[in-house]
Each structure stands twice: as C-alpha cells, then as structure tokens.
C-alpha cells in the first residue's frame, strides 16, 4: 500500500524508449500514417462509388471515346454538346485530335458516370423499400418478387465492403397514426378483454387522441422523418438508454456465453491471449472494411453502422443524461486482475499487432504482477468498478468530484479510452446458470460496465462477454463472439498442452511492458466505493437466473409442423406464463429494423387474441388436438405477421414513443401516451441470431454438435416479471436463459424454465399424441444444468 501511495506523487510518463531513435521513429510513424490513409481513402472512394465501380467509370470513358472518334450522325446530339464544352474549356483547334478526344471523353465519361451512380443508387434504394418478399414463404415467391430480386442483384455492386451498402439503404418509414393506435388497442384487447373497464377507457382516450393532439404530434414526426436519416434512433438512444438512471448491471448490459460443451483450452492466460488476439483481428477487419456486410437471403443488405462504435467506446455518466465517447485512435487494451488495472499496448515498437503468443506473455506478466502487488492497494482501490454498477447520477457526481484531475483522471482516461477490457477472474463456475449469472453482473466490482464490452475469462479457461447496450444491439456483439469462437474451433489455435500455438511466419519486435495503474484514494473516496459495492452486491444477490438446454427437439421438428420456430416458441412462453401466473401479460419481443439506415429494434407485441385462444384451448378439456393445432396455426401466422410488420417499419411502440417525445418537446400533455407507455412488460423476450458468418460450419453437423455457443441473456425488464432469451442453433437444440428478481416473491427462474420445457413438450404431443413420455420428467426438470466436463482435447481439438 505504501508503494502505491508513493507512486501517486510521481510524474508518470506512459511511454517506452520514446525518442531514442528519432529517424527510425519518424519513418515508422510516416509509414503507419500512409498505410492508414491509403485504406481510408480507398474505402472512401469505393463506398462513394458503390453500387458502381471504377470499372464502370472506365467503361463510360471508353464509350465516349468511341462516340467522339467515330463522329456518327446519330451520336451528334451528345458529341456536339461535348465539343461545345471543349470550346468553353479553351480546347482550340491546335490541340491534336486524339488528345482532344481523350480529354473530352474523360469529361463526358465522368459526368455520365456521376449521373449513373446517383440514379443507380436511388433506384436501388427504391427497390429495397419493397418488403413484399418478407411476407412470402422462402420457396414460394411470387413472380413480382422474383423480378424484384433480379433487379436488386443486377443493380447491386460486386464485392461490397463493410459500409458500401449504407447509402443505398432506405430510410425507416413512419407508420400512419390510425394504424399504430389500432394495433395498440388490439394488443390491449388480448391483455384486458374487449369488455373490460381498462380496455374501454383506453379505447375512449385513443379516439380523442387520434382526432385531437395526435394529429399535431404526427405532423411534427412526419417533418423529422423528412430530414433525419432515421426518425427514432437518436431519441431511442438518448431517452431510453442514456437518460435511464438505473445501474447498468442487470438492467441494461447483457452477456454472451462460451461454447456449450467443448472447451479449447483449460489455461486461463492462454485463452485470454487467444481471444484478445482474435477480437483485435476482427477490429482490423472493421477498420479496413474487409468484414463482409450481412445480407438476408444473399440479396437484401442490413445496416452495418453499429459496428463503427464497437471499439474504444465508453458510456460516460452524467447527472441527467449519459453520453457515448469514442477514442478513435486508441491503441491499447486494459486488462484487469484482482481489481488491478493494466494498460497493454496492442502494437509492438514497430507498429505491428501482437501475436497470440506475445499476448500470452503479456497477460502472464500481468497475472504474476497482480498476484504479488494486490496487497499494496486498498480494498476500495481494487473495487472502483463498483461505481459503474450503481445509480448513474451518483456515479456522475463521484466522477466529477474525484476523477477530474491528477492521477485519478489519468488512470480513468486510460480505462475509458481502451479498445475494450479483459477481466482475468478468479472464479470457476460449476454450472451454466452460475456462469451466466456471473457474466451478467460479476462480483460487484469486477466489470467496468461503462465500457463497450468486457471479455471475462474464468480460472478454468471458460470465457464470455459483458456488453453495454446503448452503442449497439446484441447481434453486433454476437458477431464478434461468433468470429473468435469459430476460429478457435476451426483453426487449431492451441497446442497439445493448451498454450497458444506459435506462428513461425511472424517475427515480433520488442513489446512494451504493461503498465499498472494507480489511484489516489484520499478523502471519502474509499467510503463511497464501499457504499457502491454494497449496493452492487445487493442487486446481484437479488437476480434469479437459470440457463438450460432443451434437447428433446429443435427447429427441425417445428418446421415439420409447418410453423415459424420463433412463433412456436413464443406460444410456448405464453402457455408457460399462463401456467405460472394464471393470467396473460403484455409480452415484449425484440425485432431488428436493420433493413433501414441506422435501424435498431422494434417491439413485437407477442400477446394477441389468437395466442390467448390457443393457450385457453390447452386448458379446455373439451377441445380436440385438431382444434388446438388449428388455433396454434392461426396464432403463429398472426405472430409472423406482427414480426414482419415490426421489421418493415410498421410497428407500434417506437411510433408511440416518438409521439411522446414530440409531445414533451412541444409542451403538450397527453394522458393517452403516458398511460400507454407505462404498461409494464412483464414478459420480455428475445431470440438470438445464429451463424452470422457465412463460412461457419452448420450447427447440425455431428462433428460440431458440442461446439455450439448457447448465446446469452439479459435481466428482467420488470421487477415482477421474467427476461427470456433463447437461441435455436439447429434442428435438435434450443437454449434458454431466464432471469427474474428474487425480491418479487412470486417469480422463480428455474420454475419458469421447467414450465417452458413442459409447454414445448405438450405442444409437440398435439402433433404426436403417441409420443413416449419416458424421458419427459428429465426434459421438463432440465437435468442438463450441470456444466459437463470439457471434452478431451488433442492438439487443441476435441
């Protein structure tokens, strides 16, 4: 402790042999800047031209050269105009004819190319505004959709880079006021009943709203939709995320887990090194825009703008509203061990990325240094991350008071400007549920929740990610997670002893030693840390968590039933909750709107009258299986329709939220919108995407059945409800992550998981009445909660 206090008073220069060889440093810096500028300029030109290309420009110039040289009468209307431009540009008769043709064809080709580029981009944007394909079955498209798809492929450029498609994406449409209100009332009829006092009151207020203040609010929203690239995203980020004062842990951040059964290495240091190296490789792909953009059915592009803020981003607390700050030129990662933080530069002294073996050496040094120096730091100094797990306003005040100058500011700047954080945890979890719960909130002081993402590596070599939610949605973080896990499975990154495999083709220059950060814990900072830690631990203890694998069947059987797997599971959730609570509740399912520029999410209101009818039929002894199946099909079709509407900008909740923001801005009180947005989401659900990387092996391949990531989860939106995240990785498995609050008293995450499994089993029995129930108890009780022993590895591969 004495050494740490003494270091506070020292001048700290975070450098290594800087200026010892000025000419070499200058050449290296010049080369790096030139290379960086080359990639940026190249990508800027390619993206600016897309969907056209430099080859289109060359063809245009060649075409005009032929027209000018041939001097055909039918081309006179064009060529005469070009020669007129030439005379204006002082191309006199003394200029050789071939040179004149070259100059004028270049001018004409460029002008024609610019017109072609903008027209092609505009036409592609108009074509991508068509959503009819989404409402048709994948293998039974109409002739109209086939023609539309052919036109999209014809107009689209070849080999797009990460952001090439951005300028061709359509803007998010604004739904009509009457449609949004009518859909909202339809969801309330299922919730309250059409003859209930609650529904009739909402219906009366809705009519007044549609004919009164709603019209004015809609006009204002229409105006914003005309000039903004996305009329809701900035408001959603500011008012839903950044103005929320609740702690980020559990309430906002989410987690993504490791591979389900297989483990590439048991060595914590080696796993941390390899994952860090692979994630930085993913960063380089983003920087150079070499990461392929995502397409639906290999035709329809998705918005990739969220990837821009993945690295170097931190959510800075404010007393009223937070903000995202990104360090665009950051070149370091922060590694945390036993509450001690270390700055680790990601490049060697020659400016080359560290190899996985170099990362292994760096992290091993940190591992040893932290173990030997943790006693020099007070408990408060090792628990500073607890501030990021408390109320945002309180954290902002503490930050303003204690971290605005001196060594605390220097150290905090390093933490917040890091590309990401790596946590070398001392914990070893025995079950999926234990590990998932820990990755969601840590031990109260182990995760810097403000950071865009933290990589957690456990003492047994297992790993996971905790991510801040406001900068991007979970599929974006899932993409990088899938990237490093896929490489671990396919590329044999570890040797037979579990260490990082050496790459003999890479010669690493000298590497700078990690720098341990210090803190000034004077004043009442120590007391405030302890208070924040106590609050964080109380919140963590209140979380009820269950993560289990449903192995009776997967989407293979569901597809045989000719229904949507997602809609099928949503009905199982409705049935499970009705069994659990004896009532229906408002249900939230997240849907993406990335078909549009800067699109994020929209809400699917999964509770419908059709889903209620199906659930009630399951308790009606007089109902036959045929009748129940018919009701199930009607309910799944309704759900699919709502999901498609949400994806195509015809949702309800973002629209109502936008109207509410406008009403506050105009100073108009609207009781209808207040009440509408105040109804709690007792059941909050989300399906996680699988296989976003086209080259990833199929989850149904028997060779990789134990090497599947089960996804991740989030906390309950309502203190009286459940948070349910699920992933359908293949034809035989479904993973569920269920959260609740222990303080609620009536919820139980494990009980609800069993009810989900029972509902899935009962729905299958509708289609297979003679299904043997020998294993039903094992399936329903979820006996696969214990984390299996890692598969035996040979050369790093099971």
Automatic annotation (TrEMBL):
<dbReference type="Pfam" id="PF00755">
    <property type="entry name" value="Carn_acyltransf"/>
</dbReference>
<keyword id="KW-0812">Transmembrane</keyword>
<keyword id="KW-0276">Fatty acid metabolism</keyword>
<dbReference type="GO" id="GO:0009437">
    <property type="term" value="P:carnitine metabolic process"/>
</dbReference>
<keyword id="KW-0012">Acyltransferase</keyword>
<dbReference type="GO" id="GO:0004095">
    <property type="term" value="F:carnitine O-palmitoyltransferase activity"/>
</dbReference>
<feature type="transmembrane region" description="Helical">
    <location>
        <begin position="54"/>
        <end position="75"/>
    </location>
</feature>
<dbReference type="GO" id="GO:0006631">
    <property type="term" value="P:fatty acid metabolic process"/>
</dbReference>
<dbReference type="InterPro" id="IPR023213">
    <property type="entry name" value="CAT-like_dom_sf"/>
</dbReference>
<dbReference type="InterPro" id="IPR042231">
    <property type="entry name" value="Cho/carn_acyl_trans_2"/>
</dbReference>
<keyword id="KW-0808">Transferase</keyword>
<feature type="transmembrane region" description="Helical">
    <location>
        <begin position="95"/>
        <end position="118"/>
    </location>
</feature>
<keyword id="KW-0472">Membrane</keyword>
<keyword id="KW-1133">Transmembrane helix</keyword>
<feature type="domain" description="Choline/carnitine acyltransferase">
    <location>
        <begin position="172"/>
        <end position="756"/>
    </location>
</feature>
<protein>
    <recommendedName>
        <fullName>Choline/carnitine acyltransferase domain-containing protein</fullName>
    </recommendedName>
</protein>
<dbReference type="InterPro" id="IPR000542">
    <property type="entry name" value="Carn_acyl_trans"/>
</dbReference>
<dbReference type="InterPro" id="IPR039551">
    <property type="entry name" value="Cho/carn_acyl_trans"/>
</dbReference>
<comment type="similarity">
    <text>Belongs to the carnitine/choline acetyltransferase family.</text>
</comment>
<keyword id="KW-0443">Lipid metabolism</keyword>
<dbReference type="GO" id="GO:0016020">
    <property type="term" value="C:membrane"/>
</dbReference>
<dbReference type="GO" id="GO:0005739">
    <property type="term" value="C:mitochondrion"/>
</dbReference>
<feature type="active site" description="Proton acceptor">
    <location>
        <position position="469"/>
    </location>
</feature>
